[in-house]
Amino acid sequence: MNRLMILSALLAVLGLTACDQPTVVNVPAGPAGPAGAKGATGNQGDTGAQGNTGNKGEAGKPGDSTTVIVTPPAQP
User: Is the dihedral of CA 4, 9, 10, 14 positive or negative?
Assistant: First the structure.
């Protein structure tokens, strides 16, 4: 019985230490180097085509009440 407890404790210790992984420390990159000389300006691109204007919507109907809802201004 005594040997069984010692053996199980030894196996538990070995099992726990085998799972221990070293901590990976990521070293941050150094500062960027000096900027190089600027290149020549490229050519002007072509103007894009006019997009579709969409369908005309239906006219709205007049209101049936005189209630006006005023929202308070947003808090700064």
Answer: positive
